[in-house]
Amino acid sequence: MSSIDEKDIHSFVDAVSVYFHQITGEKAEIKAAYLVEGGVSATTFDLTGYISFSGSFSGRVYFSASRAMVSHLLLMMKESNHAEEQLLDAVGEVANTIAGNARKHFGSAMEISVPVTAVTPDNWLDTVVSPRSYVIMVKWKRYKASVVVDIRHE
Amino acid sequence: MKLLIVDDSTIIRSRIARALNHPKLAFIQVIGMARNGVEAVSLVMRHMPELVTMDLTMPEMDGVECTEKIIQLKPDCNILVISALSDKATALKTLKKGARGFLYKPFSDEALVAAFLELIGP
């Protein structure tokens, strides 16, 4: 089992960047990825979607965002229904898209699950991710979101 | 032309349906939406659509297996895969099973309309 390197992380950064640009027509500000260790927190927002990896990889990628940000993303997609179920569907779809796009870098030996979504309490991510996870902070308009990459080569 | 939309995301199903408001796609009529491959195969048997949009990562039955089953039922069905799985091997695998087009997520509304037109002609 081995950790991923900088190039691997970049594939997720690129996927996040492409997602926001394609859906909103605007660039999201993406902060450099940092490791969750030494007491550094993986920021959890209201809603989180995640994808599990299998095959030659294990772990998960998480997308966590506030209700306000997800609601605004739905507006950009001309979606008028902003019920909680729709917001959860959206964070799952973002996680799915980021994981699927990153697979271009990792290859088809990386199998990805269907998305799982949850309303997440403060600090939830800190309780589920490993200390070797990378956190990518995303800022779009006045909103913030986090993408946490917790993945290992088997 | 009858269209079946297959995707486990409600939002993506709605986005695809809304794209059909484009004047050049007025001849396409949505006959059903499926959340997974099992529902999709059942709807194909009932309605025999000429056009299907197909997600790949879905519960119950994935899009690759579903594409193969639909082509067995209706060999001339035009299947447009719409997926985030952007590696070449996956695209080739679905094309071998009978899909005729591939659109990567995330997609713009313009790219979706263009993908439909490329698949079935203006």
Question: What can you tell me about this protein's structure?
Answer:
The complex is a heterodimer of chains A (154) and B (122). Chain A is α+β, with helices and mostly antiparallel strands. Chain A is built from four helices and nine strands; from the N terminus they run E-H-E-E-E-E-H-H-E-E-H-E-E. In chain A, strands 1, 2, 3, 4, 5, 6, 7, 8 and 9 form a nine-stranded antiparallel β-sheet that branches. In chain A, strand 8 and strand 9 (143-153) form a beta hairpin. The longest helix of chain A is centred in the middle third of the chain and has 23 residues, at 84-106. With 122 residues, chain B is an alpha/beta fold. Chain B is 44% helix and 20% strand. Chain B contains five helices and five strands, in the order βαβαβαβαβα. In chain B, strand 3, helix 3 and strand 4 (78-83) form a beta-alpha-beta unit. Chain B is globular and about 35 Å long. Chains A and B meet through helix 1 and helix 3 of A and helix 1 of B.
